Amino acid sequence: MSAAAAKATLSATGRRKTSVARINMTEGTGAITINGRSFEDYLPTLQLQNTVLAPFQQAGLAKKFDLRISVKGGGLNSQAGAIRHAAARALTQFDSELRGELKPHGFLRRDPRMKERKKAGQPGARKNFQFSKR
C-alpha cells in the first residue's frame, strides 16, 4: 500500500439554515478548497474565514489537515457556519478526546434557527395586510 493510500480520509456533513457542507479531511499542510475554488477566493472576508477555522484553532490543529469541501444552499454566512459544523464533526472522528474541547463552544451543535414560513392570508411570516377600520 502506498503512502498516499495509507492517509485516512475523514468525511463529515454540517448544516446551517438551508446550507449543507460535506467535508473530506486528510492529514496534510492546511490546503483548503471549497467547491473547487481556493479558500480565500470563496470566503472573501476575514470574519467568514475565521468562522471556518475556529474549530481547528480551538483544537490546536490549525495547519495539520487538507480540506476538500463541497457546500451548497444558503448564503456565504450560512455556508461558513455549515462548514464549521462539518469540520468540528470531522475533528471528533479524528480524535474523540476533542469533543470535550469543541462542545462548550457550540461547534458540534446544529444551529436550529431557520427562516419562518409565510402564513396564508398574510404577505409574510409575521406581517399582516394593512387594517382599515372604515
TrEMBL record:
GO terms for cellular component: cytosolic small ribosomal subunit. It comes from the Bacteria. Keywords: Ribonucleoprotein, Ribosomal protein. Pfam families: Ribosomal_S9. This is Small ribosomal subunit protein uS9. Residues 102-134 are annotated as: Disordered. One of its GO terms (biological process) is translation. It comes from Haloferula rosea. The keyword Membrane does not apply. GO terms for molecular function: RNA binding; structural constituent of ribosome. Transmembrane segments: none annotated. Belongs to the universal ribosomal protein uS9 family. Residues 102-114 have a biased composition (Basic and acidic residues).
